[in-house]
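Side project, low priority. Logging it here so it doesn't get lost.
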Amino acid sequence: MEILNIKEKEVHAEVTFKSPCSGLISKWEIYILVLNEGIVELDMSGKQLRTIDLGNNQDGILYITATKDGIYCIDCTENKVYCNSMTGENIWTFTNKSLVNVRGISVDGDQNVFVVGRVSKNMMVIQHDGKVSKMLLTESDGLINSWSIHFDKDKKLLLICCGEN
């Protein structure tokens, strides 16, 4: 992994992991989901600060996001959404049969979680407590083959990336 300074157009730091990485988030620190290790936290210089063990929940996890209070993950094989503390302790787990092949995940400023189901062709919002959810978009809204989602907290804008059929 390379940490780039886009303004200066130079590599700021390079980090190598023993296992494949599948998720990356950066706001306060850098969090990388490393297969068979957990979530590795780095500072902006690339120094490893700690590894957050997700316990048994990490086998199918491919997508992560974080706030200053928690880490949110989706398990693509089990179609589950996890909210964990910054130490890795599970706070809540969400499942819904109408959400299949869960992919992208993002969180707004109120800790509401947005996820997309690639096969189910839908997008849901899960309230901060993990107990209440609402379907926001479906295939009839043009949601097909969704892979990624991002909530821009500054502009309060939800972005969804969809592929071709």
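Brief comment: The radius of gyration is 16 Å.
Revisit when time allows.
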